[in-house]
Design brief:
By secondary structure, this protein is an alpha+beta fold. Helices cover 14% and strands 34% of the residues. The longest helix has 23 residues, at 2-24.
Length: 200
């Protein structure tokens, strides 16, 4: 009788071990299987870079046209926006301050000191094809400066360097500049580029 009980107990233990071992076998279709093979890396859709999220390139001088907006005068200073238009085939970004100086011609050297920067940058401005951005310029009436200090020079226009560009644009705007770049009074001031054609 004791031998029969012992045999029954051994049979039960062996059967349980066999069933348990089979349950632990990884399935070929189980995605959590640790079996050998290349791992599948899941990338969240929200972290993928979409075309609409791509940053537009910096605007190049060759893709831009420059013009002058309406002038306003106050207290011996004339203010006018320089308006940049994106003539390129794709969007581009302008950010920061343009370079502005008086010149005696499209290929001439600057006359006097270039424009001093006023204020701080307002951040990048993205221009779609045909889109516009502007920077407000303040020009002092140099006739109020003693001639011996100013050394006045008649100038036909302005040389404009779009932000972060080394190639320039020429704008016709007749004025009188101080030929003495060391004159104490700043003859030109410029603000950073903002969206639209108003310059403010």
């Amino acid at each position: 009788m004791r031998r029969l009980r012992m045999a029954w107990w051994l049979l039960t233990a062996v059967t349980a071990a066999t069933v348990g071992g089979c349950g632990a076998e990884p399935s070929a279709s189980d995605p959590t299987s640790n079996s050998a093979g290349p791992a599948l890396q899941v990338v969240s859709g929200s972290s993928a870079v979409r075309d609409s999220d791509a940053v537009a390139p910096q605007c190049r001088t060759s893709d831009l046209a420059a013009g002058l907006g309406p002038e306003s005068a106050a207290a011996g200073t004339v203010a006018f926006p320089i308006v940049f238009t994106n003539n390129g085939s794709g969007p581009c970004v302008l950010e920061g301050f343009p370079g502005v100086s008086y010149v005696t011609g499209s290929d001439s050297a600057p006359v006097g000191a270039p424009a001093a920067r006023e204020g701080s940058s307002s951040g990048p401005v993205q221009l779609a094809p045909g889109g516009q951005a502007s920077a407000l310029v303040f020009a002092v009436n140099v006739g109020n400066i003693p001639p011996e200090q100013c050394q006045p020079v008649a100038v036909p226009g302005l040389r404009i360097y779009p932000p972060d560009n080394t190639a320039s644009l020429y704008l016709e705007r007749a004025a009188t500049a101080c030929g003495n770049g060391q004159v104490a009074t700043t003859q030109l001031r410029v603000r950073a580029v903002v969206a639209g054609a108003g310059g403010e």
